[in-house]
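Input structure tokens:
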């Protein structure tokens, strides 16, 4: 009878003769995983896909488990929400920086063209009611209701871009136009010329057609608003910056116009109403 040796090799071989041959024992050991914990082998097999039939959900932690999927979804939602918030805030900041307010544009136009802020604000209120997208039945555009031909001329001279509805560009162009008309027609006629057009007002001066009642009503409303704001009705800075005066945009003052007219009161030729023209 064969005597059994009590010691076994740690590597699957027998230290002494045994009932099962050593080679067979090694093959059995290989089939059992070479002594590795079964969990690790199964996990690796499931990760590299080398052995079919393994289920990753039964071992370790995976992104395919319901809990992991929920956690991943929550994380992605948080990151996307944070990104959207940052993007929106960034766009709002850029928009606020690139689009000055009406007050800022009025301030700039007043300083650039020497026209009192109260005048600009009063014209904006009377022309568009403060609506930058306003378009009149006759085609006047924006806050200061510039006609397309006037806008094209002014933006070409002042390099204001192609958007007549832009608040800053429209206010700068409108204020430049006000200054041009003031220099040409003086405090008694520039508002009427702004509303009726310089050609129509010049015709009045030349003894031609009279002003429509609509223009007279407009001038009275603007003057009243200026008076309520505490602005001087016809006080204007006669010192003009060289950069925009040198461009040739503005008509030179008539020889008979004197600087001492700056203290005068705006006067509308009320007697020159054209009865055939309705407001």
């Amino acid at each position: 009878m064969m005597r059994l040796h009590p010691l076994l090799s740690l590597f699957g071989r027998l230290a002494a003769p045994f009932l099962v041959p050593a080679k067979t024992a090694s093959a059995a050991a290989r089939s059992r995983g070479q002594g590795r914990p079964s969990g690790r082998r199964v996990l690796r097999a499931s990760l590299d896909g080398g052995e079919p039939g393994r289920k990753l959900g039964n071992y370790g932690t995976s992104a395919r488990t319901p809990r992991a999927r929920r956690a991943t979804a929550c994380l992605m939602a948080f990151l996307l929400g944070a990104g959207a918030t940052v993007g929106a805030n960034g766009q709002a900041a850029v928009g606020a920086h690139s689009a000055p307010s009406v007050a800022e544009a009025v301030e700039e136009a007043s300083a650039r063209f020497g026209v009192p802020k109260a005048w600009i604000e009063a014209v904006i209120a009377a022309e568009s009611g403060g609506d930058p997208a306003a378009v009149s039945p006759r085609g006047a555009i924006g806050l200061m209701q510039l006609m397309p031909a006037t806008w094209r001329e002014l933006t070409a001279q002042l390099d204001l871009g192609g958007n007549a509805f832009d608040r800053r560009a429209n206010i700068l162009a409108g204020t430049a136009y006000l200054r041009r008309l003031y220099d040409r027609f003086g405090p008694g006629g520039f508002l009427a010329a702004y509303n009726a057009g310089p050609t129509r007002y010049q015709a009045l001066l030349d003894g031609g057609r009279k002003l429509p009642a609509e223009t007279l009503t407009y001038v009275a409303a603007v003057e009243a608003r200026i008076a309520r704001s505490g602005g001087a009705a016809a006080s204007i800075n006669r010192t003009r910056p060289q950069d925009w005066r040198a461009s040739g945009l503005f008509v030179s003052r008539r020889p008979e116009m004197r600087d001492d007219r700056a203290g005068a009161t705006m006067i509308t030729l009320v007697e020159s109403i054209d009865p055939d023209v309705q407001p």
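The mean pLDDT is 70. The first helix runs from residue 22 to 32.
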